[in-house]
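User:
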Amino acid sequence: MICRWHVFPAVLLVAVATLSAVPAQAQEDKLVDLLKIADTAADVEFQPLAGEKKIKLSELTKEGPVVLVVLRGWPGYQCPICSRQLSGLARHADEFAELGATVVFVYPGPADNLAQRAKEFLRDRELPQHFVYAMDPDYAFTNLYGLRWDAPRETAYPSTFVLDTNRVVTFRTISTSHRGRPPADDVLAAVRSLSAE
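Assistant: Predicted structure:
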């Protein structure tokens, strides 16, 4: 005779695994329609950390392609994967500059202490000339683009977009995890493909 209690834990594990997969799938489904390839990105103003005047996305794209990188900001700590992503792109700064591209990093978070947290993230690193490091107080930009990761200890979905001179999306990666960042070589290739057209 088979004891039904031996079967129950396996059934329970399958049920739990299925339920835990639902939120991740719901996140993926939600993000599929956000700022797709060939969409035109909404024009926004960025507030650079250095306290300079605000910069409009449309002004940046007039000068050349824009790589738009949405970081996680301050989820209670400085994200080491965001830091690696910034460093990886910075290593290719000369190549981005040769292609006339501007790389914009967006650091989202609550307005209180955002500038302090954003400075901590940079850790005295100086960014190359064609790189812009901007703050997103109270998630205004993140919400506009639908990238707010509204979960405990989360801020924004890590995202990378390449926009052409008309703000049209030609490359995009939106991650529902802390990882899933595109390699710098892939981003550079996407920018190169624009200059080849």
